[in-house]
From TrEMBL:
Residues 4-185 form the 3-hydroxyacyl-CoA dehydrogenase NAD binding domain. This is 3-hydroxyacyl-CoA dehydrogenase/enoyl-CoA hydratase family protein. Gene3D superfamilies: 1.10.1040.50, 2-enoyl-CoA Hydratase, Chain A, domain 1 (3.90.226.10), NAD(P)-binding Rossmann-like Domain (3.40.50.720). Pathway: Lipid metabolism; fatty acid beta-oxidation. Residues 188-283 form the 3-hydroxyacyl-CoA dehydrogenase C-terminal domain.
């Protein structure tokens, strides 16, 4: 069991790995070379860099206390009781081998040692080491930033003990939340070898086909199922100096042509390295993004690439989009056809050399470079006959792997092996795939906006299917039907979750709300809010356990559903908040009531505690639309309770939520409705004064003040003495305040602005 980890090397990668380990609750020793004035200053700077990193390297900055710093001359002994030591020092074999020599005589016999090298072969690093050391050694290649990129490439040697590999794989997946892929001990391993080749090809083909940087990034991002950062923005984020170093190392190690154009090397020489230096392929000028003209090396305002053909393709599923992408007319189509042909050909040629199977290749690009689908899935989407024609068009010979494929690389739950036979897709223990369950006919109820799926063992799952999983009438209707179905059919419990890559739920359907308000359908709106509240409360009082499995964006109504579950199984990357104030509203699906109930309830056992502190905490959370940057912060803010659990790995989230339901079943009883003490006029006066003070200081607008006063009205129960009220009383106040705010011109302007721009409006 790995209970303590050492990280040697406090650079960007080493400090990021240490932050990830600490975020997972693992004590870490972080060492680097001695400094001159302060012997620990290099490691200290690494830790400070991780604390200041944006996006944040730590899931909770308080967890930096798990990291103990030191230097490699005075404090190597601190590694003596570590179960795993990760080496992340300079990318040269000699210093790494010298470190291993020192570690070999120091570490306990069971300690695992790994290198985070991005490309140096393990066999080179192991020269001179004993048999015992070799058995406990492997490569563990994290991707930057370690917290956010899912991929962890594991590079065992022929001598690596299978038990060591199994333990690192388990720890990487369950504790650190990584998708682990086994890679062969070849230069660049899998993801960098193929991903960097593709980036170099895109740069070269841009020049060949007469495109601009803006055009290439428009063509090589979401259009191809790749991240928004596409090619050049990704390079800016990584660093042009890093790109230069990696391409040079790959060229030297493989003998292949990875050379970057001369103008890119000139940018590096001039210190234009991307995001970290303020300029690279892009540059921010007075808040605007300017793009490099590679012919002149000057910057000009970014040009939007708008073509009717591109617009028509964007909303199609990737499998339908790709065949049409390579048929685009003109220079865009010519560029994309050649890019697809060259990268597919290289992948087909190199896959057996760098990976153990093509599934690993797809996972490596999906998890390490953020591709929606890996290269072999993309080739299947294009069609293998079309791929052969594309290769022939560009004078590329048909690779052996393509000759062996019988119609597709993936067929009926199998994949083509490098031996030419088809093998069952590897099953990942503890992972439930909704896509697979749906293909097996496990859908119980289905509507346009949501569906109920059988997870097995008497547990069902409600899946939202709207854009960003927004909650509207269809979702609420299917939720109610699902609750009735689960009870009637004798299911044990319900999970609410989905496999969307970005959002559990971005909240209520704002476009529908705005449209109804503008048309004056107030009776319908009042009924809709009442139905939303009823849906939230039905999660709380169903006769069986309901577990919500939130992840990513969990906002507004999505957060309110989460708050009313019996238990929550959250993914570590949880961005949860009651953000209604940002669009001029307040939470009216029970969220305002629930935060008051929670925060005042926490203080109830303490007679000397001032209950107004609970009211104030709820007010600040809602009025400021606070959103967590992780599940750990969500717990601090009060969105998650101590009994709610966190899954580090999104892949296991649904299975973990199902297991939580089964744990709750044996002695489950729905809770009794509580009575809630509201503080009335005195507390309302205090909150009014605070809101007015902020307005007088010019820190909020008149409409912000209006929103704040409505929130205060609900949280205090309004005018009158301190008294006990029911949940229903507070839900009535929520609903009335919501409708009053929705009826104002300024709130409608805020909603319209957010729908159009995705950003809040302060009016």
């Amino acid at each position: 069991m790995i209970q303590k980890v050492g990280v040697v090397g406090a650079g960007t990668m080493g400090s990021g790995i240490a932050a990830l380990l600490a975020s997972a609750g693992i004590p870490v020793v972080l060492l680097d070379i001695p400094g001159k004035e302060d012997r620990n200053e290099v490691a200290k700077r690494g830790l400070e860099r991780a604390l200041k990193a944006r996006p944040a390297a730590f899931m909770d900055p308080d967890l930096a206390r798990y990291v103990e710093i030191g230097n490699t001359e005075d404090h190597l002994d601190k590694l003596r009781d570590c179960d795993w030591v990760v080496e992340a020092i300079i990318e040269k074999p000699e210093p790494k081998r010298a470190l291993y020599e020192r570690l070999e005589g120091l570490l306990k016999p069971t300690a695992i040692v790994s290198s985070n090298t991005s490309g140096i072969p393990m066999r080179v690093l192991l020269e001179g080491r004993s048999e015992g050391f070799r058995k406990r050694f492997l490569g563990t290649h994290f991707f930057n930033p370690p917290r956010y990129l899912h991929l962890l490439e594991l590079i065992p040697t022929p001598e690596t003990d299978p038990g060591v590999l199994k333990e690192i794989q388990r720890f990487g997946e369950r504790i650190l939340g990584k998708g682990t892929v086994l890679a062969k001990d070849s230069p660049g391993f899998i993801a960098n070898r193929l991903g960097v080749f593709g980036m170099v090809q895109a740069v070269r083909l841009m020049e060949k086909h007469g495109l601009s940087i803006d055009e290439v990034d428009a063509l090589t991002g979401p259009l191809l199922g790749r991240p928004n950062s596409a090619t050049f923005r990704t390079a800016d984020l990584t660093g042009l100096d890093v790109l230069k170093l990696v391409t040079e190392e790959l060229a030297q190690a493989t003998g292949e042509d990875f050379a970057l154009p001369e103008w890119v090397l000139r940018l590096v020489a001039e210190g234009r390295l991307g995001e970290k230096t303020g300029a690279g392929f892009y540059k921010r000028v007075n808040g605007e993004i300017h793009t490099l003209d590679y012919r002149t090396l000057e910057y000009a305002p970014r040009a939007k690439v708008e073509l009717p053909e591109l617009k028509a393709l964007r909303d199609l599923p990737l499998t339908e989009r790709l065949p049409k992408v390579v048929e685009l007319p003109g220079k865009y189509g010519a560029f994309l056809r050649e890019l697809f042909a060259r990268t597919a050909h290289y992948t087909l040629e190199k896959a057996p050399e760098i990976a153990y199977d093509l599934v690993s290749v797809d996972q490596a690009l999906e998890w390490g470079f953020g591709w929606e689908e890996g290269p072999f899935k993309n080739m299947d989407a294009l069609g293998l006959e079309g791929l052969k024609a594309l290769l022939a068009e560009h004078g590329l010979p048909e690779p052996e792997l393509l000759k062996r494929a019988q119609g597709a690389f993936y067929r009926n739950g199998t994949h083509l092996g490098f031996d030419g036979a088809y093998h069952p897709l590897p099953k990942r223990e503890g992972v439930i795939s909704l896509k697979a369950l749906k293909s097996e006919g496990k859908t119980l109820l289905e509507g346009k906006e949501a569906a109920l799926i059988d997870l097995g063992d008497g547990v069902a799952l409600l899946e939202f299917r709207t854009k960003m999983n927004a909650i509207g009438e269809g979702v609420i209707r299917t939720l109610q039907k699902s609750l009735e179905y689960v009870e009637a059919k004798g299911y044990l419990g319900l999970v609410i979750g989905n496999e969307d890559p970005r959002a559990f739920s971005a909240g209520a359907n704002l476009a529908l709300i705005l449209s109804s308000a503008q048309e004056g359908d107030w009776d319908e709106l009042a009924l809709a809010v009442r139905q939303f509240q009823k849906a939230s409360m039905s999660l709380r009082y169903s006769p069986f356990p309901v577990v919500v499995a939130p992840f990513g964006l969990t906002l507004g109504g999505g957060a309110e559903f989460t708050l009313h579950a019996d238990a929550v199984q959250a993914h570590a990357e949880l961005y949860m908040g009651l953000v209604e104030a940002g669009v001029g509203l307040l939470p009216a699906g029970g969220g305002t009531k629930e935060m008051l109930l929670r925060f005042t309830g926490e203080l109830a056992p303490y007679e000397e505690a001032d209950p107004f502190e609970g009211v104030k905490r709820a007010f600040n959370l809602i009025a400021l639309a606070k959103t967590s940057t992780s599940a750990l912060e969500a717990r601090k803010l009060g969105f998650l309770r101590d009994r709610d659990r966190i899954s580090m790995n999104r892949d296991f989230l649904i299975a973990d939520a199902k297991r939580r339901v089964l744990e709750l079943v044996p002695d489950y009883r729905p809770p009794l409705p509580p009575r809630i003490r509201v503080l009335g006029s005195e507390a309302l006066g205090n909150l009014r004064y605070a809101v007015w003070a902020f307005r007088e200081a010019g820190e909020i607008t008149d409409h912000d003040m209006r929103i704040g006063l409505e929130i205060a009205q609900v949280l205090t129960g309004g005018e009158g003495p301190a008294r006990e009220v029911s949940e229903g009383d507070l839900l009535d106040l929520e609903r009335e305040a919501f409708l009053r705010l929705l009826g104002t011109r300024k709130t409608q302007e805020r909603i319209a602005h957010t729908l159009k721009t995705g950003k809040p409006l302060r009016n």
